[in-house]
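S.,

As promised, the CA2 run. Input:
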Amino acid sequence: MSLLRILVLHGPNLNLLGSREPGHYGTTSLADINQALIELGDRLGAEIITFQSNHEGELVDKIQQASLARSELGHIDGIIMNPAAYTHTSIALRDAVLAGGKPFIEVHLSNIHQREQFRHRSMLADTAVGVIAGFGACSYELALRGLIHHLKNTGG
Ligand code: CA2
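Predicted complex:
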């Protein structure tokens, strides 16, 4: 099988990881999370493309590009996304993943079900192949393993 290409999207405020709120989000920086994913991807046969934005529309643009045969992203097999606060509000992101049709995994650092009631609802979870929450930075690595397993077992 040729190298898989996986887009990893990080939503608003995740650029602050490692610098504040370590109780909820740990001490690992976003750059460290991305680097660990790139290295794991190398070992598992996947190229990892990462992108963080504080803007909902920019995340929608990336999801749309991922589904186009010709875009600056090139071919993408699947998406891992931590939509951050947009998880709980964004019909725009939901519509984008549904329209794009690429398999995606929703990821959270914290266990959103142990937190405030408003974090229990996800606008995206029922459209995902799976959801991983509560393992800190390791949530992303579990998501990558899960998505690669899914892509290899379904042919994408
Ligand atoms: O647990 C997660 O991964 C969340 O997606 C993180 C979001 C939160 O709104 C979701 O309910 C659960 C918040 C991301 C904010 O990240 C920060 C990182 C460091 C310092 C401050 C915020």
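The chain has one domain: 4-154. The pocket of CA2 is lined by residues 13-14, 16-17, 20-21, 25, 82, 84-85, 87, 108-110, 112, 119 (CB under 6 Å).

- D.
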